[in-house]
């Protein structure tokens, strides 16, 4: 089981550790993968993370899946990591990942532009939370590569959208932040050529993923969308007994394998 965290999370995020523990206790080998500039990975690459960096993550998943020899490999992503997981499933139809048998996406961001707006326009807690973590990450990158980066002025941005716009200075390959967001925006058409089972878990009360993004999505032979009235963002927690609901569902789905 390869697990991908969300934006400004890491391989040590609580929901990643909980999933890793759950599946490890059920006989899975576990890999908790850090995206670039997440966790303790900032020093490994001079380049900056951005959401359109699919292929390096795809290659990492492909390599990891190969380690299982002939055993099945599964991919589980959360939030932005779930967006990556979905794009890896889509890329799999063109470039197969050896042994990859199923992809699971919990609270995936389908339209990053709308998600960023939802963070900025929703409860202040979420905007402050993500800005704090993003600023901390950028400061760390600047300390490591002071000759390459100076984020001092843009760190005063008051919204995630404003900071995203300012960051385009370091991504001249994108004409604008809207063009950047489009590179990893997903729609119904994105899933039409899937050739591997994909399960999406989304909640109507998710505070940062607009439920309207999922209204146009419909199930097909390989795509199954589980819409729940409650669950928040990557939550889906039952208290009595305490459990993360999606882990139970995924375990049931994988039992035939």
Q: Give me the number of helical elements.
A: 9
Q: Supply the helix-strand structural class.
A: alpha/beta
Mean pLDDT: 94
CATH class annotation: Alpha Beta
Termini Cα gap: 13 Å
Describe the sheet with the most strands: 6 strands, parallel
Q: What is the name of the CATH topology?
A: Rossmann fold
Top keywords for this entry?
single chain, alpha/beta, Rossmann fold, six-stranded parallel beta sheet, 9 helices, 8 strands
In short:
This protein has helices spanning 14-24, 54-66, 80-92, 112-121, 124-144, 160-167, 177-182, 212-215, 245-254, and strands spanning 2-4, 31-33, 73-78, 100-106, 198-203, 223-228, 237-239, 242-244.
What does this structure look like?
With 257 residues, the chain is α/β, with parallel strands linked by helices. It has a single domain (2-111, 185-254), classed as Rossmann fold. Helices cover 37% and strands 14% of the residues. It has 9 helices and 8 strands. The chain has helices spanning 14-24, 54-66, 80-92, 112-121, 124-144, 160-167, 177-182, 212-215, 245-254, and strands at 2-4, 31-33, 73-78, 100-106, 198-203, 223-228, 237-239, 242-244. The strands form 2 sheets. Strands 2-1-3-4-5-6 form a 6-stranded parallel beta sheet, sandwiched between helices. The protein has a two-stranded antiparallel ribbon with strand order 7-8. The longest helix is centred in the middle third of the chain and has 21 residues, at 124-144. It is globular and about 50 Å long. The protein starts with a strand and ends with a helix. The mean pLDDT is 94.
């Amino acid at each position: 089981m390869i697990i991908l965290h969300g934006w400004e999370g890491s391989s040590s995020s609580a929901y990643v550790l909980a999933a890793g523990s759950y599946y490890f206790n059920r006989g899975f080998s576990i890999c908790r993968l850090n995206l670039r500039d997440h966790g303790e990975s900032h020093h490994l690459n001079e380049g900056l993370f951005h959401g359109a960096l699919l292929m390096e993550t795809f290659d990492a998943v492909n390599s990891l899946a190969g380690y299982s020899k002939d055993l099945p490999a599964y991919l589980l992503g959360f939030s932005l990591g779930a967006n990556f997981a979905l794009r890896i499933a889509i890329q799999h139809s063109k470039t197969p990942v050896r042994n990859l048998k199923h992809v699971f996406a919990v609270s995936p961001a389908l339209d990053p532009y709308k998600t960023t707006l939802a963070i900025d326009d929703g409860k202040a807690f979420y905007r402050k939370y993500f800005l704090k973590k993003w600023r901390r990450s950028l400061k760390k990158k600047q300390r490591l590569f002071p000759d390459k980066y100076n984020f001092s002025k843009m760190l005063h941005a008051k919204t995630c959208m404003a900071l995203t716009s300012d960051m385009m200075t370091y991504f001249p390959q994108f004409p604008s932040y809207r063009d950047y967001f489009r590179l990893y925006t997903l729609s119904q058409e994105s899933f039409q050529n899937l050739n591997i089972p994909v399960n999406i878990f989304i909640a109507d009360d998710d505070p940062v993923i607009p439920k309207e993004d999922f209204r146009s999505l419909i199930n097909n032979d390989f795509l199954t969308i589980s819409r729940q009235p409650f669950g928040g963002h990557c939550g889906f927690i039952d208290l009595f007994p305490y459990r993360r609901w999606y882990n139970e569902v995924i375990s049931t789905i994988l039992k035939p394998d």
